[in-house]
Design brief:
The structure is a single chain. By secondary structure, this protein is mainly α. The protein has helices at 2-11, 15-32, 35-51, 55-72, 76-91, 95-111, 115-131, 135-152, 180-190. 46% of the residues are buried. Residues 155-204 have low confidence and may be disordered.
């Protein structure tokens, strides 16, 4: 199945191939009407497109996911869509919009007890806080993320870096949604100088 092949390529960081597979699967799912698989492929294409440098297509995918999920009162994928749109806003320097979207995503994630989605939302909120000159708030958020990650025994998911990296390495492995301890330590110790997390994306 093209959708499965797309996710495999996504984890392997072969983003161009992932995009091709997701485009193929979307054509199938739009025809057969399977909404869940359609949303899954849209999510994959959004992540792969962003990682491949095509943020316009990524934004379109997140918007479609949001429209589909809002119409059905769904929360899991709606939370991810709000996170994706908020992340895009943060990447463009639209901090107020990013905070609003990601906060909505966080509420959706908490409503269904989705710790991973809640964690990535709080991570973006921590970057907004640092950009806004509030490193202590960022440190508190990273501490909350660490608490979320602890019960699962892991702080990673198998999705690509989508325009950011951990402070400790500019070559962080794909799928790293938070390295809670290192980020928390970095923000806490360097926060007095209002240093923000390093961004590895180019402005396009």
């Amino acid at each position: 199945m093209a959708d499965a092949a797309g996710h495999h390529a996504l984890v392997a960081q072969d983003y161009a191939t992932a995009c091709r597979h997701f485009e193929s699967s979307l054509a199938v799912f739009r025809t057969d009407g399977n909404q869940l698989y359609l949303i899954s492929s849209l999510l994959g294409l959004a992540l792969a497109s962003d990682a491949d440098g095509n943020r316009t297509r990524s934004e379109v995918c997140w918007q479609e996911i949001l429209a589909l999920t809002e119409a059905r009162g769904e929360s899991v994928y709606r939370g991810w869509a709000l996170w994706g749109l908020g992340l895009g806003a943060w990447q463009r320097g639209e901090h107020s919009r990013a905070k609003d979207l990601v906060t909505q995503g966080l509420h959706r994630a908490r409503s269904v007890d989705n710790c991973v989605s809640a964690g990535v939302c709080m991570e973006v909120l921590s970057w907004v806080a640092v950009d806004g000159g509030a490193p202590r708030r960022a440190a508190r958020l990273m501490g909350a993320i660490a608490a979320l990650a602890r019960p699962a025994g892991s702080a990673s998911i198998n999705y690509p870096d989508v325009g950011f990296s951990t402070p400790s390495s500019s070559n962080a492995p794909a799928g790293r949604w938070v390295t809670a301890r290192s980020r928390r330590s970095s923000v806490t110790t360097s926060g007095r100088d209002s240093k923000k997390p390093q961004r590895t994306h180019s402005t396009r």
